[in-house]
Amino acid sequence: MENNTVAVEKFVAFKEEGRVLTATIRMTKFDEELQTDVLMLDFDGVLAYVPRDEFDIRPVTNSFVPFVGRKIRVLVKDVREDGLVICSRKLVLENKRAELLERMVAGETFKARIKTFTKFGAYVQVEGISFLLQNKYFAEDYTTISEVKNVGDEIEIKLLRVTPNGNLFAEAVEKHKSDTVVNLDMFERDQVVIGTIRNIKPFGVFVCIAPNLDALCPVPEDAEIDMAMKVQFRITKVDKEEGKVRGKILRVLPEEQEEEIL
Fold it and tell me: What rounded mean pLDDT belongs to the chain?
């Protein structure tokens, strides 16, 4: 183990040159002096902290416990007089983000991994940087990402836009298109079917009642609705020439309803 003073001076040099360091997270705790949760790293006897606000580009509110034992890449942000080294994963991500955007603006595409689904699409990551991929920029039809992909699957993406507040939006390089052919012969007036709310507009609600078939209905006055909700839908009109179905929402179905009929 190096003399502590010499070791600390080495980290001052790492800060100045912007060297990315890799370490294993040894512990997480609430630090009374910093008044925040920290991840503790040990660089051969030199203590280093990653405060909560230096962990990610976006605010992180969940527990740090799952990260203990995992490796982390950081930059040295500060070296205090008492020898404590303050590190930042956030700075690493910001640098990676800037590099990634520069390459994507130039037209480069990347394989992104699906991290989680939302009502409007999915959050995908490229080298730790998150993008929102909306359903309408994933498929040519009404297919949602969650219908054909799983968390952990990869999608090739390109940059769509960057919002003023820094959110990143992506677009699939190759748009998904369902091979399902809509057959309106199976639908008739007064049928009640299960559907999923796809879109809510001032003039009405689009409810998916079959692959590639969204039916239009009025916004219900007696029920609160949201995207991706499952509903009971009564068909009031089937226009086979126009390929359109109209109807009304009867009720919103509870989430994960698996009630058995006895």
Answer: 90
